[in-house]
Structures are given as C-alpha cells and as structure tokens.
C-alpha cells in the first residue's frame, strides 16, 4: 500500500525557474542579448552551460550562487505539503524529475531541510570545475521525439518503476505533479488509476485540456492545483481511503 509522488521542480516545488533565477548573480542582473538569443528549442542544457561560463567569466563564485539560489521562494503551501509528506514517508515514495540541475536542487532542498523527503532526484548532472565554473550535462540520451534532447521524463519514470518492480515494489497509485510542456510525455504514460496534477494556468494544464478537446484525452484522472494546499487535501483523502 504505497503511493508514488512524482514532482517536477521549477514552477512546481519552487515558484520560479531556478535556471533563470541564477541570472540575479550576473552583472546588472541580466544577460547580454547575444547570449540570451543563443537559445535553441530543445537545447536548454547547452544554453545554460553558456550562461554558467558567462557567470564564471564575470567572477561569480560558488558561494554567491548558493546564497542567491537559496532565496528562491517555494510555491504557496509547498513547505506544508513537503512537511506532511515527510511525516508520512511510510505511505509515500517521492521523486523529483526535473530539467534543472543537481547542484541547484541540492542547495535548495538542503537549505530548507527537505532533502530527506525525496527518495531520488533525476535531473541534469552539474558540478563545479577545478577553475570554479559551474558545468552541466544532459541527463541522458533518448529517442522520444516529443521531449527536449537532454531529458524524456517518461523514460525516467518508466525506468524507475521497472527498477522498483525488480525490488518487488509496485505502487497503488502514481500522482504526477507538474506544470510544464515536458511533463505531458510522462502524464500520457500514466494509467487509469493514476492521477495527473497540473498547475492551474500553466502549459501542462493547457496541453491536457487540448488533448481532451481533440477527443484523445489522457488515460489517468486529472486534478488541477493552484496552491500546494490543494495537493495536500487530495493526499489526505488518498491515505484515508
């Protein structure tokens, strides 16, 4: 009797995009136009690599980055929700699947003492080089045409579930909590008994309702949330059933 909670990170756990939040460290808190315009769709990780080089070239050090990142606000109600999950870990396994990076997520979760809530974090590997520059790599390679080059969240979820099955663990229900376009691929993998929780007014909600309009709705149930309190209310009902 265990539930799997799958969280996105940016605009879901935190109320901002961690990758754009780091720009607060840049001179005048902005990036030069040439760098900003160098982004190509589906190649966000490479773009962030260039941003980190720019920050490093401008003398931005690890401690300054860390100070900045730990000021990022959590989404409304999220602190209470993560506290509740932490108190009920015997019922919930909890993972993050995110297009951010290991360094940012680690800093943010540890600063707020939430790292123990999550069993695993799947995100782009990042590290500081010997010269003090932050570097980031693609999470994996995949063949999914729908997803950005560096990360297919469906593949991550499927591999995680397969690994858990090998250990003899299957879940009563999967609850997927996210906001972005890249959360649609794993949501379409969910079964009838599972639930997708898209954030109200964000891309994922719009894409799910578009599918319903085109008469090809997702198989799982859909429950929209605007604050993490909505998610907590649902989980409380779930564990009472």
UniProtKB/TrEMBL annotation:
Residues annotated as the enzyme's active site: 8, 10
**Is Cell cycle set as a keyword in this record?**
no
Residues binding substrate, per UniProt: 19, 99
Cofactors demanded by this protein:
Mg(2+)
State a single Pfam family of this protein.
Put_Phosphatase
Task: Fetch the Gene3D superfamilies from UniProt.
Answer: HAD superfamily/HAD-like
Keywords noted in UniProt: Hydrolase, Magnesium, Metal-binding
The reply to whether DNA-binding figures as a keyword in the UniProt entry is: no
Enumerate the GO terms in the molecular function aspect: metal ion binding; phosphatase activity
- Where along the chain is Mg(2+) bound? 8, 10, 179
InterPro entries per record? HAD-like_sf, HAD_hydro_PyrdxlP_Pase-like, HAD_sf, Pase_PHOSPHO-typ
Q: Which family does it belong to?
A: Belongs to the HAD-like hydrolase superfamily. PHOSPHO family.
Q: What is this protein called?
A: PHOP2 phosphatase
Which species is this UniProt entry from?
Chordeiles acutipennis
Lineage, broadest ranks: Eukaryota, Metazoa, Chordata, Craniata, Vertebrata
Q: Which gene encodes it?
A: Phospho2
């Amino acid at each position: 009797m265990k539930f799997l909670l799958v969280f996105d990170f940016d605009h879901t756990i935190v109320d901002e995009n961690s990758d754009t939040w780091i720009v607060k460290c840049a001179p005048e808190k902005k990036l030069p136009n040439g760098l900003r315009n160098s982004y190509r769709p589906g190649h966000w990780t490479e773009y962030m690599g260039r941003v980190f080089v720019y920050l490093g070239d401008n003398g931005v050090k690890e401690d300054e980055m860390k100070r900045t990142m730990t000021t990022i606000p959590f989404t409304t109600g999220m602190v209470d929700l993560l506290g509740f999950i932490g108190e009920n870990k015997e019922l919930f396994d909890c993972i993050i699947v995110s297009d951010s990076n290991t360094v940012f997520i680690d800093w943010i979760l540890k600063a707020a003492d939430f790292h123990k809530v999550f069993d695993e974090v799947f995100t782009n590997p990042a590290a500081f080089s010997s010269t003090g520059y932050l570097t980031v790599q693609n999470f994996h390679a995949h063949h999914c045409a729908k997803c950005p080059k560096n990360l297919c969240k469906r593949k991550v979820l499927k591999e995680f579930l397969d690994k858990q099955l090998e250990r003899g663990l299957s879940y009563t229900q999967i609850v997927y909590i996210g906001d972005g376009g890249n959360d649609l691929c794993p949501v379409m993998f969910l079964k009838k008994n599972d639930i997708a929780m898209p954030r109200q007014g964000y891309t994922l909600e719009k894409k799910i309702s578009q599918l319903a309009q085109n008469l090809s709705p997702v198989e799982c149930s859909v429950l929209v949330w605007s604050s993490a309190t909505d998610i907590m209310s649902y989980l409380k009902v779930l564990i009472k059933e």
